[in-house]
């Protein structure tokens, strides 16, 4: 089977592998991809001491980063370079030092060049910490072959 005709699950895995290899931000925050499928991604991250803010909880920016990374892996699972066009997050509870947070991204709509994804962040007890909604926009190029992607293309 040629590289361009991979089954959808294998394609999603190949895209995640290629993206993660270049994603120094997610790697630096200790994120791990636990599952990926077409239009779906699940990432985990442990709350470290350097992620705790002045009230003793995980800084909201780190929660946002975890949700945003899960969003990116879900919407780029088709080997079509896709970027965020907007997003929002609602914080429902705190992340604590040592918590193992899981962000689960699920595609809700994908039509033409746009998509909508819902991401739920939960702690190791199953408590929902945040809800994130991302809107995606497909640009030109391949996820797996970065040189084929027009950087910054928004047309």
TrEMBL record:
UniProt key word Cell inner membrane: no
Keywords for the protein's UniProt record, in alphabetical order: Hydrolase
Pfam families hit by this protein: 4HBT
Database matches in SUPFAM superfamilies: Thioesterase/thiol ester dehydrase-isomerase
Domain Thioesterase: 55-129
PANTHER family to which the protein is assigned, alphabetical: ACYL-COENZYME A THIOESTERASE PAAI
Name the record gives this protein: Phenylacetic acid degradation protein PaaD
Organism: Vreelandella alkaliphila
Organism ancestry: Bacteria, Pseudomonadati, Pseudomonadota, Gammaproteobacteria, Oceanospirillales
């Amino acid at each position: 089977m040629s590289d361009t005709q991979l089954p959808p699950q294998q394609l999603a895995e190949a895209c995640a592998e290629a993206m993660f290899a270049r994603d120094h931000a997610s790697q630096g925050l200790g994120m791990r991809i636990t599952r990926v499928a077409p239009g779906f991604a699940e990432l985990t991250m442990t709350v470290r001491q350097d992620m705790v803010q002045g009230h003793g909880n995980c800084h909201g920016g780190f929660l946002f980063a975890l949700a945003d990374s899960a969003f990116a892996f879900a919407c780029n699972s088709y080997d079509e370079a896709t970027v965020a066009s907007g997003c929002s997050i609602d914080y429902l509870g705190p992340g604590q030092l040592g918590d193992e947070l899981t962000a689960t991204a699920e595609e809700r709509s994908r039509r033409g060049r746009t998509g909508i994804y819902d991401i739920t962040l939960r702690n190791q007890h199953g408590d929902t910490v945040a809800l994130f909604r991302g809107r995606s926009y497909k640009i030109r190029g391949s996820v797996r072959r970065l040189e084929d992607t027009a950087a910054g293309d928004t047309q």
